[in-house]
């Protein structure tokens, strides 16, 4: 029986879409299935950073840090619309790491990997510098350094879009029901979004189901990897609060328990995280606990003058990641490496399960998967070097700032803040979004928060948005700047529009 696809990738997070993208660029026929929306879980609930991770540096994981710093530069060039430099301020607290240790760590961080467009570490007098005005007066000195911010959910979607451009089929809201080896292939049964069932054959399976990877390998695929040694879950909790300070810089806070907390600019808000703790519950019931919120507020209040209260939190989210280290270790000592487990009895179709990983190094993980499967797919073509830009990343003059200026010149009738947000979401694909737009009315119905009907239609047509939540919280995050009544009105409009589309 001839295979329907070379490779079936299970999981629509950053690992799954990244693997599908690399595989499709290697000339394989690829199908990706995701039981929910793309980036519905861990990959949209991160700290939104592209970085080497100073915590990994402190743990001595130099290989991981060097790899991540190299990828930081690659992603800056691949997706300049959704990845951009971010300046961090690291205040020195009396009961935290000594200044010499911080200085040494940042010096190594600056020189361990490439740093073409990012500034190096500098010492700051917080009593005289503007970044110290919002901090407690007892904090007199600190350091600044640079890393990068990313729109995590959009990074996932853009990888799926690029994989599709290279011939992959992307099926969100499609569940793998069963899989069995048969005549050197995998025969799989899928439950599709419309309730129909589909059976097909593939040459290889990649299990990139994130927190579900271990149970999927065991229960659905019949592998002996149901409980891989050392794999456990860690929950990371984040909160979003009204602005604590003005400016586009971030703060890295050393908490009293040696954990690091980031305070990021997030539009009109600040994003604060993460509070990490072991987790063993249901992923679908994942919430941020009151204790997590109190922990993050207390950490911020040790540094900032403006008191942060639990009641100030306007939104919170939590994600689960898998780690391969010993459960007995402190979470602060766990490095975020990945683990690949190949199940391929002689002559049988391969199953490769992915555990762990992080946003910054998803491409390297995908390339390692490619290498692991190379003997099963000898006809794979070489990958381009440098890699192609992600959709929207090919900017005129290679400058996001210049492109924003040009958009504002060409579309003066669109509010600047709305136009900038569109450009940050779509990059040069704004040419598609705004094609033929001659007035604000051409954008269609305005829902609030900078969201217009024309963009909603693009999310549906090109980005697999199928529910109101997909648009509000993942494709755009406009929900944060919408009022509760606007979010409710949009959801009701969506349901009415769905009925109209189904009836047409």
Tell me the layout of helices and strands:
Blueprint: E1 5-10, H1 14-25, E2 30-34, E3 49-50, H2 54-58, H3 62-78, E4 83-91, H4 99-112, E5 122-125, E6 141-150, H5 152-165, E7 169-172, E8 175-182, E9 185-191, E10 197-207, H6 213-220, E11 232-242, E12 250-254, E13 260-266, E14 269-279, H7 290-301, E15 315-323, E16 338-343, E17 351-356, H8 362-372, H9 400-410, H10 416-426, H11 430-433, E18 446-448, E19 451-452, H12 453-462, H13 468-475, H14 484-503
Parallel strand pairs: 1-2, 1-10, 2-7, 4-12, 10-17
Antiparallel strand pairs: 3-6, 4-6, 5-6, 8-9, 9-10, 11-14, 11-15, 12-13, 13-14, 16-17, 18-19
Helix pairs in contact: 1-5, 1-8, 9-10
Descriptive notes:
The protein is α+β, with helices and mostly antiparallel strands. The chain folds into three domains: 5-42 and 154-230 and 336-376, FAD/NAD(P)-binding domain; 83-149 and 231-326, D-Amino Acid Oxidase, subunit A, domain 2 (D-Amino Acid Oxidase, Chain A, domain 2); 396-503, Helicase, Ruva Protein, domain 3 (Orthogonal Bundle). Helix content is 31%, strand content 25%. The chain has helices at residues 14-25, 54-58, 62-78, 99-112, 152-165, 213-220, 290-301, 362-372, 400-410, 416-426, 430-433, 453-462, 468-475, 484-503; strands at 5-10, 30-34, 49-50, 83-91, 122-125, 141-150, 169-172, 175-182, 185-191, 197-207, 232-242, 250-254, 260-266, 269-279, 315-323, 338-343, 351-356, 446-448, 451-452. Strands 3, 4, 5, 6, 11, 12, 13, 14 and 15 form a nine-stranded mixed sheet that branches. A hairpin with a 2-residue loop joins strand 13 and strand 14. Helix 1 runs parallel beside helix 5, helix 1 crosses helix 8 (362-372) and helix 9 (400-410) packs across helix 10. It is globular, with a radius of gyration of 23 Å. The two termini are 39 Å apart. The model is unreliable at 326-335 (pLDDT under 50).
